[in-house]
Design brief:
Distance between the termini: 55 Å
Strand order of the largest sheet: 1-18-17-13-12-9-8
Structural class: alpha+beta
Number of strands: 19
Largest sheet: 7 strands, antiparallel
């Protein structure tokens, strides 16, 4: 069954839908954007909306307070930082302080982003990394915007069937742990290229805080302790002794973690530049590690790695411009497709209500069916971005939603990612904003520390489709377009996003960690701020939901939705699953001339401003 056939089968009378949804039809005047919905100009390049000289400053509407059930315990009280000049928000207060140090020394938001990224490699090893990759969205003060893809790639020796067992089924043990699970890392090359193009400081200066953290150590938090404990056996097997006490027990909260091997690696990169990681001593150590453990990353793979500058996806929602990541990340597709659907709903249902949850779940279901079957590395397959993000397509998807009943995802996949990632945001006094998501996929990646180099490798090969129709680490069931091929970038859900206000000034920046759930939560954060007009504190602490089509279930954060809402949704046919914290997000908003930053209230992290 194709998506078109499925959607046609779900279609209901448009007049009845308009009454049920309160739909206001989007204008069809031939313009590319209107306040009722999101009209996209995919691949619009680096052109952005610059502030209009002499125009009156945008004055946001009054922020609306969040209302939640009495049992909802998530609070962001005391988490927000505010500053008139700059902001850094990340999963590590130490890393945020590193970025702030660079800003105070005269650096810009890109300098600070690179400093924070390297500092996360030292202070947040469960996800901050040298051995992984990521995506960065940059908006310059003059309104130009750029998207940097430094996602990992499949080694040249990778094969389509490399993770299949003798029975033809995917062997998760090979794609999620150990040397074979690693893709060619892109983090060092990507951060260095961003610095080269838009930074103002030398690489050695922005890496200096990370070297200091690695040498002097940092205080272990509870999340790292739990992660070490869960991965104790493979870490001890693959060079992770520094994560344990002298008696062999995992480091505990408050213990100091020093990483001398990592410090030496960082010093080599600082002295010789990013190519040292790909062609120097560090590359040699990485290849030797591959040879010891049966991995397939070669010296040539490392030497050939290059980040890619791509045109960001751009859209509009209620007068705001939304700038986000294009494929091979599918996060931006899900975000903008869902905003297109929701943009035709007026008034917006109350957040947390049955109607709101049902509409969001059905929108996500439709976006994820297309994400899982049509999106992949655009350098290898044609991704129909313009069609997916056309307003007419969203109108059709919206009309297929029955507000009285849950849809059913197709029984079979038309064949054609846990909190294991980290997001951070930097902003400076000029108005430059950088939104970055970086990952090694699973907690502590593939659990392999490169001997002598001190950093963990990723297990991103699991984000490929090992076997079409079979789920990966995050339960994602994907198609053949995302199959393993040498040099290919694996599909991602990461969605670093920047939102610009009607006067052309940066207003919101968000992103998150959490595998396949990143896209849906980033969408909810944008809707919280723009659709429900919440401030950044309430937008970040609001209860979250997730639906990814397969498996066909609706995840709701425990305590965030009333029993009456849950019962109503179940009666409509939704399979309800109460979940723990959904996604580890970061948020920034600019109000009243000040940056406001909030780290994830459900997790560790810190915002630093001045």
């Amino acid at each position: 069954m194709t998506l078109t056939t499925w959607a046609r089968g779900m279609h209901v009378n448009a007049a009845r839908m308009a009454l049920a949804l309160g739909v206001v039809a989007c204008a069809r005047s031939g313009t590319t954007a209107n306040d009722a919905g999101t009209a996209l100009s995919p691949g619009a390049g680096a052109q952005g909306i610059a502030p209009v000289p002499g125009a009156a400053a945008f004055v946001p509407e009054a922020r609306v307070a969040l209302s939640t059930p009495s049992e909802w315990r998530v609070s962001a009280a005391g988490r927000m930082a505010e500053g008139s000049e700059s902001m850094v928000v990340s999963n590590s207060t130490v890393a945020s302080e590193a970025g702030d140090e660079i800003l105070r020394a005269g650096g810009n938001a890109v300098d600070a982003a690179v400093a924070t990224g390297f500092a996360l490699a030292a202070s947040h090893p469960i996800a901050g990394n040298l051995g992984g990759g990521g995506f960065m969205v940059i908006r310059l003060p003059d309104g130009r915007s750029y998207a940097l893809d430094y996602r990992e790639t499949a080694p040249a020796a990778a094969t389509r069937a490399m993770f299949l067992g003798a029975d033809g089924k995917a062997d998760a043990s090979r794609s999620r742990e150990g040397h074979l699970a690693a893709g060619v890392p892109g983090a060092v090359a990507g951060m260095a290229d961003a610095l080269r193009r838009f930074g103002t400081m030398p690489l050695a200066r922005v890496i200096a805080p990370a070297i200091r953290i690695a040498e002097q150590g940092f205080a272990v938090d509870s999340m790292l302790t739990v992660s070490i404990r869960r991965s104790e056996t493979p870490l001890k097997k693959w060079n992770g002794a520094h994560f344990f006490r002298a008696d062999g027990t995992p480091l505990l909260p408050g213990d100091t973690l020093k990483q001398p091997d990592l410090a030496r690696t960082l010093r080599r990169i600082a002295e010789h530049g990013a190519r040292e990681f790909y062609e120097g001593e560090t590359a040699k150590l990485l290849v030797e590690e591959m040879e010891r453990g049966g991995g397939i990353i070669s010296a040539r793979d490392l030497a050939n790695y290059k980040p890619v500058w791509r045109a960001p996806l751009r859209g509009r929602f209620k007068g705001f411009e939304v700038i986000t990541m294009p494929p091979p990340s599918a996060g931006g597709i899900v975000l903008l497709e869902t905003l297109n659907i929701m943009g035709g709903v007026d008034p917006m249902p109350t957040i947390g209500s049955t109607r709101y949850v049902h509409l969001m779940a059905e929108s996500f279901r439709r976006a994820y069916i297309e994400r899982n079957t049509l999106v992949a590395d655009p350098d290898f397959v044609r991704v129909p971005v313009a069609r997916l993000l056309a307003q007419s397509h969203a109108d059709s998807l919206r009309a297929s939603i029955d507000m009285a009943h849950a849809s059913a995802s197709p029984a079979t996949l038309p064949l054609v990612e846990g909190q294991h990632t980290t997001h951070y945001i930097t902003a400076d006094k000029s108005g430059m904003v950088v939104s970055t998501t970086t990952t090694i996929n699973d907690l502590l990646g593939n659990k392999v520390v490169v001997r002598g180099a001190g950093f963990l490798l990723n297990d991103e090969m699991d984000d490929f489709t090992a076997a079409p129709g079979q789920p990966n680490l995050y339960g994602l069931v994907m198609g053949d377009r995302n199959a393993v091929e040498p040099g290919k970038r694996m599909l991602s859900s990461m969605a670093p996003t920047i939102v610009v206000s009607p006067d052309g000034m940066p207003f919101l920046a968000v992103g998150g960690a959490g595998g396949s759930r990143i896209s849906t939560v980033v969408t909810q954060l944008v809707l919280n701020a723009l659709g429900s007009r919440m401030g950044i504190v309430d937008a970040m602490r609001a209860p979250r939901l997730h639906h990814q089509a397969w498996p066909d279930r609706l995840q709701l954060e425990k305590g965030g939705f009333s029993a009456a809402v849950r019962d109503s949704l179940a009666a409509m046919g939704h399979v309800i699953e109460e979940a723990g914290p959904i996604v580890n997000a970061m948020g920034l908003m600019r109000l009243n001339g000040k940056w406001q930053g909030v780290p994830e209230p459900r997790r560790e992290g810190g915002a630093v401003a001045h």
